[in-house]
Design goal:
The complex is a heterodimer of chains A (130) and B (76).
Chain A: E1 5-10, H1 15-29, E2 34-39, H2 60-67, H3 73-84, E3 87-90, H4 92-98, H5 115-122, E4 126-129
Parallel strand pairs in A: 1-2, 1-4, 2-3
Chain B: E1 4-8, H1 16-26, E2 33-38, H2 41-54, E3 57-64, E4 67-73
Parallel strand pairs in B: 1-2
Antiparallel strand pairs in B: 2-4, 3-4
The chains are: A alpha/beta (130), B alpha+beta (76).
Chain lengths: 130, 76
């Protein structure tokens, strides 16, 4: 039987969506599931080295996540890579549009990836979009 | 010789205690027992599920004064 695979597409820059994406990705990655995370649009700037994780909340729950000190989304994404061998791939188009250089990104991110390659990775995988 | 380790996940929320457990499991030997302390009810339910799914040995869960003690043995 082929390995279970999921792709997590993260385009939002709001706290609740980043948090939920990171939770799904990290727990899946440490549960024997092959995880590919594709970062694009408003999610990308948080992954510049040293960037703040102070994402705006969509509603009151986002504020509660901070107040109650739930693990922050960047820690969970990093753990998905370090503990579960997930791949986090920044969207090459988003980097080009925002003028972000690859060497300014967090070291646990993979190579900039275009949609053709991502769609290939997403074949036969569940796709979760945040 | 198998060791017993305590992982203090109190004050964290799902999946924080689980991720802390996995970090320690990676550095442990087969047969080691790991006891996770958590005051997050969701983790008390989720950690045993994860342990069964990935093939480690779930030993026990008990609650004391609002703190769950979830014990797991590294099996592989």
């Amino acid at each position: 039987m082929a390995a279970e695979k999921i792709c997590v597409v993260v385009v939002s820059g709001t706290r609740e969506r980043l948090q939920m994406a990171a939770m799904v990705a990290s727990v899946a990655a440490v549960s024997g599931i092959e995880v590919t995370i594709f970062l694009s649009m408003n999610a990308v700037p948080y992954f510049i080295k040293g960037a703040s994780t102070d994402a705006p909340s969509e509603g009151s729950f986002g504020d509660l996540v901070v107040k109650k000190k739930a693990p922050d989304f960047k820690t969970l994404f990093r753990q998905a890579v370090e503990l579960g061998d997930a791949k986090i791939l920044p969207c090459s188009m988003a980097l080009d549009i925002a003028g972000i250089e690859t060497d300014t990104l967090e070291p646990y991110l993979g190579e900039p990836t275009g949609l053709a390659s991502f769609l290939d990775a997403a074949r036969d995988a569940q796709v979760w979009t945040f | 010789m198998a060791e017993k380790k305590i992982i203090d996940g109190r004050g964290s929320f799902c999946p924080g205690p689980l991720m802390e457990l996995i970090s320690v499991l990676k550095m442990s030997q087969i047969g080691d027992e790991l006891e996770v302390l958590s005051n997050d009810k969701g983790s008390a339910k989720d950690i045993p599920e994860w342990v069964r799914k990935v093939g480690h040995e779930y030993v026990s869960t008990r609650e004391e004064a609002g703190v769950w003690h979830i014990t797991v043995r590294k099996a592989k």
